[in-house]
What we know:
The complex is a heterodimer of chains A (116) and B (113).
Chain A: E1 4-7, E2 10-13, E3 19-25, E4 32-38, E5 44-51, E6 57-58, E7 67-73, E8 76-81, E9 90-97, E10 105-107, E11 111-115
Parallel strand pairs in A: 2-11
Antiparallel strand pairs in A: 1-3, 3-8, 4-5, 4-9, 5-6, 7-8, 9-10, 9-11
Chain B: E1 3-5, E2 10-14, E3 19-21, E4 24-26, E5 32-38, E6 44-50, E7 56-58, E8 64-68, E9 73-78, E10 87-94, E11 101-103, E12 107-112
Parallel strand pairs in B: 2-12
Antiparallel strand pairs in B: 1-4, 3-9, 5-6, 5-10, 7-8, 8-9, 10-11, 10-12
Amino acid sequence: GAVVSQHPSWVICKSGTSVKIECRSLDFQATTMFWYRQFPKQSLMLMATSNEGSKATYEQGVEKDKFLINHASLTLSTLTVTSAHPEDSSFYICSAQAGQVNSPLHFGNGTRLTVT
Amino acid sequence: AQSVTQPDIHITVSEGASLELRCNYSYGATPYLFWYVQSPGQGLQLLLKYFSGDTLVQGIKGFEAEFKRSQSSFNLRKPSVHWSDAAEYFCALRNNQGGKLIFGQGTELSVKP
Lengths: 116, 113
C-alpha cells in the first residue's frame, strides 16, 4: 500500500531556531500534501495545503511566514518552523494525496516537536 | 459551514462488550465520511470510509459504520471490543472542493479487562 514517511519522528530544539520536517511519499506521486497540527488531547487542525510546484494555501490564522511549506517535487514536501517558540511545541502530521480530489489520503506517522 | 462533532470525549467499555462511537456532521452536499484511529504518538490509520452507495460500510479490524442522512450521523460500531482497540478515534468529513479533511474532536476509547 501507499506509504508516507515523515522525518524526524521527534525533535527538540531551542527557542529561536528553525526546524525542518520532511514528508515523503515513498511509492506514489503526491500531487497534494496537507499539513496538520495536533495539540495534546486535541484534534488535528489543518495548517496548509500544498500542491506540487505552487505556493501553499494556508488556513486562516496560520502564519505563512512562520510555517514555511515547500512542495518542490511529487514525492517531497517540507514544513519549516521558523524562529520556533515553546508554544509551537506540538505534533505535526502530514498527509499525501495522489491524483484527483477524491483520491485516498495517506498519513505520515507524525513529528513531535518540543521547543525549549 | 462544514463541521464534524464527536459528542463523547472519552468512553470506557469492557473487553468483549459492544461499542458505538458517535459522529455528527454538518455539510451542504453529499459528504465523504471517514473514521480514523490513532495510537499514542502515532499517525492515523483509516478504518473505513463512506462515499456513496450502501449506507452500512465495513472496515478493518471488525469495525463498521452506518451513514444516516436524516440524522446527519456516521456512527462507528464494533460488536466485541478487544483491549488492543484502546486508542483515539477520529471522524472526518472530506471537502469535495479541495480534498482536505475536517476532523472531529476525537473520542478516546479505554478498554477495561
